[in-house]
Amino acid sequence: MKILVTGGLGFIGSNFIRYMLAKYSAYQIVNLDKVTYAGNFENLAGIDKDPRYQFFKGDIADSKLVNSLISVQKPDAIINFAAETHVDRSIMNPGDFINTDVFGTHILLNAVKDHNVKRYIQISTDEVYGDFDNGGFAKETSPLRPSSPYAASKAGGDLQVLAFRRTYNLPVLITRCTNNYGPYQYPEKIIPLFITNLLESKTIPVYGDGQQIRDWLHVDDHCSAIDLVLHKGVDGEIYNIGANQNPEITNLELTKRIITACGKDERSIEYVKDRAGHDRRYAVDVAKIKTELGWEPKYNFDSGIAQTISWYKNNLEWWKKIKTGEYLNYYKQQYVQR
Ligand code: NAD
Ligand code: TYD
Asked: How many angstroms separate the alpha carbon of residue 108 from the centre of ligand 2?
């Protein structure tokens, strides 16, 4: 099988490429990535020499490039990871999110239609369902109630996918996963940000009261779910993916666990002004992917977070290079001038 992965230099896309090349010796991967601040060639160090892997630099919103790439490469499937992904950046600058997450998705769908691609998976997020603060779990049929510009742009992408399914009967699927963690995550997201700040003996900024809930899933478990959806998913369907942590983990609980694992104490915590429009709780019902496709996560949170913290401790070079230049400007704008 030849798979066109978009956004494969990012956190989940690069983990997915590693996962697939390790599991399927005859598969080929074509990676289309714009190399934004979040795209990092070092995420695929070692893989770049693999003859089964090809890289193309470009924007999924560039129709000419996308169409010529697909007509030459003739992929059996497209998996769209490419997106602007950080909620805080979407609050600062929503425009980039519309271009990639909505318009870019539209360009890819048009290409699926015009080139008769046999499978398209849109990698979406549980954030499209919005806040589940009063208990309960979002089902795949739950209404979309995005709160942040990021979530709204992802919901816009999902709606494009569903409209192309209904109108043109395209072989498209959507996955909606909860928050991921693991190796190669850009240190703007809470887990790598807090681990690396603590390793640098800096403070860690907890938004508001820290009582928000996210359902943390190890990135390898997300990859195994996408692998199943690719091979067994039913066209036109949506699949929620999540760990269903029980008990649920608040940001403050998560913070305390990371502090302990890094050998620090709670004096490292700095409570800062809350994020605008901050969703209190995300929670999805994952019965469908479990019962229909037989998916089960491998990691529990304790083993996953311990492995992840060790990875950041053992890969100082990887994240120290990122925490320079543009990153420092972002950090100043986001936290110092908060
Ligand atoms: P990331 O920010 O780490 O990486 C995004 C990648 O997309 C980067 O390599 C970037 O260069 C590339 N990219 C951005 N705009 C592009 C464009 N216009 N054309 C081509 N490439 C472009 O993101 P991630 O955390 O790996 O997330 C991947 C996908 O998974 C996203 O669609 C995101 O919405 C979704 N998702 C993420 C999480 C999470 O916790 N990180 C959870 C659920 C769903
Ligand atoms: P984040 O990793 O940005 O993912 P998302 O907003 O997509 O869920 O944030 C996860 C949670 O952590 C969210 O409730 C916001 C909170 N958070 C902080 O408290 N401090 C921070 O510095 C960051 C980045 C996030």
From this structure: 29
